[in-house]
Design a protein that fits this description.
Layout lengths: L13 E6 L3 H12 L4 E7 L2 H7 L7 E4 L8 H11 L4 E6 L4 H10 L3 E4 L4 H12 L7 H13 L12 H11 L4 H8 L3 H15 L4 H10 L4
Parallel strand pairs: 1-2, 1-3, 3-4, 4-5
Helix pairs in contact: 3-4, 7-10, 8-9
Amino acid sequence: MLKNRTMTPQPGAIRVAIIEDQTEIRQSLGVLIDGTPGYRATGSFGAMEAALDAIVPPLPDVVLADIGLPGMSGIEGIRLLKQRYPGLHVIVLTVYDDDKRIFDAICAGACGYLLKTTPPARLLEGIREVLEGGAPMSPSVARRVIALFQAVRPPVEADYHLTPHESRLLKLLVEGHNFKSAAAEIGVTTHAISFHMRRVYEKLQVHSKTEAVAKALRHKIV
């Protein structure tokens, strides 16, 4: 029988839900997150179906999701979670680093893609990074993503009616900036960056920074 654990988050802590079918790994992640100041595990699920039933407002800040799950795949589950809650941050945590799964996970709405060999400190850093507008990826995954985009022949350039400011901001994100560093580069607050990026998301018809960057690269928007 699946056992879910739900805990009361400490004030100000980053709330993390875990979707992982291997009990030992799931428990280890819970211990790591709960044992680190500033982080709190708010749900632990062994299957995507259970997570979809339980992840409701108030939402966790970040979801760590495996993709090789029994029953519904993690990729399909991520797609459903993002359809319900477009602003939800989902990081894939998996053993798979093949092109198809990476591409499918990003297209489904994953904001990051980390391998299970990721050191604990880097995993915690990635959780915080995604909340700052970043897209944490394991080095080998990042190389594959770059290779994938280099292999894709871009379509005819489209006009998405971005303002000069929005285009500049999108270009900074394509170059690897997160919201915090983009704000410093432009000389505005991260709140202003978030406001303008919501407009960019609407114009590009995407739901996350990762999707916006991917579309910008594919369509040569900037």
